[in-house]
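Every protein is a chain of amino acids, and every chain bends into a shape of its own. The fold becomes a row of whole numbers, each drawn from a learned catalogue of backbone shapes. The protein below has been through that process, and both of its lines are reproduced in full.
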Amino acid sequence: MERRLLTAAAALLAVILFSGPVRSQVFDETKISFSLADDNVLRDPGETRINSPALYFGGQAQSPADRVEGSIYSRPASRLIVSKKFDLGALDPEGGLRMRLRPDENGAYALSDDGTYLALNFAFSETMNGKFLLNPIDSDRIRIGSHYDISWGGTNVFPKNFRRGLVPGAALSFDLGAVDFFVAAKTSLIRSPSETILDNPGGNTNQYVERTNYGALGGFNVEPIEGLTVGIGGGYFEKGTSTRPNVLGKPIDAGGGSARIAYHLGGQVGNRLDLRLYMQDPEKYGISDQLDMSKHLGFDIALEFAFVDQVLEDLDHYGSTRHEQSKAFALTAGFRLDRLRLHFDTVYRDLTYITFNVPGFMPYQALPASADLSHGNGFSFLPEALSGEWFSVLSADYHLRLSGNLGLTPAISGGMLLPATYKPGADGLTLEGPFVSEQVKGIQKVVVRGTRQGDWDILPAGEDEMPVFIGKLDLKLNVGSNFTFVGEVSYANDPNFAQVFMDDRGHAIREFDNPHILGLGLVSELAF
């Protein structure tokens, strides 16, 4: 009987969905990318702590501006997108196979996911619609926040060192005209210790188990008046359990929220011309994107704030945990007058916001109360609450219409980075003997770039961090809307680079290295 009912229900559903004529539309898009780069022309292989292999095909030009956590799209690749959409009227199913052929860390090429999806679109009216989206492999693009540098909740919010594979997810969104909102969920398999102690004398006594961890996201945007948008989003994530012996197996719960206010006037402004943005996400910052210049004047400005919180080991209280809270904000502005564009972007991130995904500056541990995060060298005026990383960039470009389908866009940009730092507080150390003052002077600062410790710099004893100055020249050539070529020359003066050298007596000492960085980058893309 139950089987008959199921068969009848399936038949009825088929009649409802397919009673009308079915029209299918196939969107096939292939993007092939080519790159050539040298991250530092001034240094030879083996001369720097982070090796500079010289100019090579498939390389990516890097600079101190690339301080954010590398995304899964951060290497050049050929992209293949094959999608199909059924036009059924009120309900339109669609799906897309999105793959990338890219080099891995060992130089071999491998296929990887680029956002493969299934979706069901539904329309209530011409101005009101919704979508149910499924990412069966990875849902990194489902995030909280709009500005990439301070967005969070992507794949790596689940600690990648203990995570198995990527992070699938699902989202439901509605666009109701003046209001749009979404809810989403993600799952991840994380291998983490439990509180169970194994009876294994002389061997490992910790039991590691692989368990499902969950994440939930949501947010909405409203447009109270034309051009003004206000948005709020938030999320909660289970990030496994702590690996620290004193709090072994304690859950690491994390959450937070973001808020954004933006105003748009006139025509489209678009993103600034910068290969760094393209490497973060070539879909969001595509170099082949065509700018709508039907309106002569355009202006954008947005302010975004993010706050996150997670539970980590409390180093100041043995055997306990505490909430570590972090913040970040970004101010962006863009202006276009015909073919001239100006962009300004400034970003602030707490040290613990930068390392939120690890989780923590010291993995699984909150910063002790004695930690010194203050700036030196003329920046000590910054309040303790804003003692993290500051990054600002100003850019300008102009689009030249050449003969036929040719277009040329030169761009220039300059910026400054004041990196986040960490220094152990002397009151948190046990210092004894007749030379305590000298020992205190010998405590070294760490300049933090991104989440990988290999990208950080330990400064020589007694030295403070210095600001980093960055300049870039970009040249974009487009042939119609299909072929795009972008060349980039970047220069940075980063006086925070330090390495260990041998002095005349054979002693290892840490000294500052050559601060000059000259990078070359080239990316070309064909879309067909």
In short: Residues 1-27, 428-440 have pLDDT under 50 and may be disordered. Residues 22-527 form a domain with the Maltoporin; Chain A fold (CATH 2.40.170). The chain has one domain: 22-527.
